[in-house]
Amino acid sequence: MASAPQGREIAAGQDGSVEGLVRLVELQTIPMPNGILGVAEVSTHIGFPVHRAYYIRDVPTGQSRGAHGHKALRQCFLCLRGSVSLSISKNGVTETVRLSRPSQAAVVPAGCWRDLSDFSEDSVVIVLASDEYDEGDYIRDLGDFVRWDAGDEPVAAVPYLDLGRTSQALGPEIELAMRRVVKSGCLIGGPEVTGFEARFAGFCGADHMVGLGNGLDALVIALRAWGIGSGDEVIVPAHTFVATSLAVDEVGATQVLVDVEPDTGLMDVGRVAALITERTRAIIPVHLYGHPVDMDALRALAAGRDIRILEDACQAHGARYKGRRCGGLGDAAAFSFYPTKNLGALGDGGALVTADAATAEAARMIANYGSREKYRHEVAGRNSRLDPLQAAVLSTKLEHLDTWNARRSQLALRYFLGLANVRGLELPAVRAWAEPVWHVFPVRAPGVRDELIAYLAENGVGTNIHYPTPVHLQPCYVGRWHVGDFPVAEALASSLLSLPLDPTHTDREIDFVIARICEFFAWAQAAP
What we know:
Elements: E1 8-9, E2 23-26, E3 28-32, E4 35-39, H1 42-46, E5 52-57, E6 65-70, E7 75-81, E8 84-90, E9 93-99, E10 104-108, E11 112-117, E12 124-129, E13 138-139, H2 142-149, H3 163-184, H4 191-204, E14 208-212, H5 215-225, E15 233-237, H6 243-250, E16 254-258, E17 280-283, H7 295-302, E18 308-312, E19 320-321, E20 324-325, E21 332-336, E22 350-354, H8 357-367, E23 371-373, E24 376-377, H9 388-419, E25 434-435, E26 441-444, H10 449-458, H11 487-495, E27 496-499, H12 507-526
Helix pairs in contact: 3-9, 4-9, 5-6, 5-8, 9-12
C-alpha cells in the first residue's frame, strides 16, 4: 500500500491562525459564573455550512481513526477533552497538528487524506462536516487517494459538461452566499445586485452594468435603449446562437446577415462594409466560443456614422482583445449567465454592460416596466431582473473566473498539441491579438462529423454541436433566406463539433478524448 508523504508538525500562532492545509482557529470562549461557553461560528471560524456532526471517544490506546480521503467534504475537528493528533495530506504534503484544547479547532479543506492518532485515554473529538454522509465521496485506500490526488485515476468516460463538479467544488461558499440573501429578506434588487453590478462592470473595464433576466433580454433592451426598431437594419453573423437574431426581430428591426470566417466562425468583418446602408443602425459582433471579434476593424467601419456596436459577449466572460476585456469594446455588451457559461448562475441571468450612463439609465427603465418612478411608466417596458440570489452566486464565482479561464486555456493547449497532426480534423484558429476563454473548443471534421460523434459516444466521450443549423436555415425564417446564401456558415454547421473542455476536466480526461479521436481517424483512413 502507498504511504502518505512525510510532513511537518504545525502549531497556531498567537492569533490562533495557521496557513496551510490545516487552518487552526481559536474559538470564542466566554467564561461565565455557571461554566465556560465555547462558540464556533460558521462565518467567523468554520467557513462552511455544517450539515453533519459526529463524535469519537473511547479509542483504545495505540489505535487510530480516519485513515481515508474525501473528495469534496470539508471538516472541522474539535477536541473537547484530552488530546489527539490530526494528520492531513494533499498534493504530496502532509501536515500534523496536535489538538489539546477545546478552544482550538482544525479546519480541513476538501480533497484531503486525514488520519487521527495518538488519542489520549480521555479524548473526545467532535467533527463538523460540510455535507451529510455520502459513501461516494470517500476514498478508503491510500494508494487510490494518491492516484486521485495526482489526477492519475484511470479514465473510462468523459462527460461533455458536468455542472455538478463545479457545484461540488464551490457548494459551501454558494450555500453561505444564498443563506446571506435569504436572511437579509431583500429578494428583489438591493445591495447584492448593485454590488455585483459594480464588480462585474469593473471586471469588464466598463462603468455600468444593468442586471437582467437573461442574455436575450440584454440584447433586446440594448437595442430598445438606442431607439432601434422598425425601418432600421442590424448586421448580425449568420453563424451564432439564434438569440442574437431573435433580439433584432423582437424590436421590429431588419436583421442583415453576414457570413463568417471559416477558421474561427466569427463575423467576417471584411464583408460588413458592403452591407452597410443608410438604414444600418447597429452591428452585433458575436464573440463566439469565447474568441473576440476584430473590434478595431469593426469600429473603423462604424466611425463617423450613426451606427452602434453591441457586443454579444454571452460566451466571452473574461476574454481579451488586444489586452482589453470583452464587454468594454463596443457601445454596450450583452452577457448571459446561463449555468453552462464560463460565469454561470444557478438558473437564468443576464447583463447589459456599457460605459454610457444614458444607455444604462434607459436600459434600467425599460427593464423595470418602463418606469423610473413607481407606478409611472414612460414606455411599454418589460420585467427583466437579475435577482439577489443569482447575484450572490455570481459574485462568489467571479472571484474564481480568471483561474477557471486560465485552466480552460491549459486544456485547449493540450488539445492543440495532441491533435495538431491528425489528418482530417481541423482545429480552431486563434488570432494574434486574441486571448480567448474557450467557452467551447470547436473542431471541424468535414464529411465525417456525425460518424466521429457516434464513435466518441460509443467510447464514453460526450460532445456537442454549436450549432447544427445556421440562422438563415432555421424553420422560423423559412422563405426569408435560402440554402446557399451563406456557404461558410452552412459548411460549419455540417462539420463542427465541440469537445469536452471545462475547468473541472482533468489532463487525463482530455488525453482520453485525444486518444479516441486519433483512433477514429486512424481507423477511418485505413478503411477501404
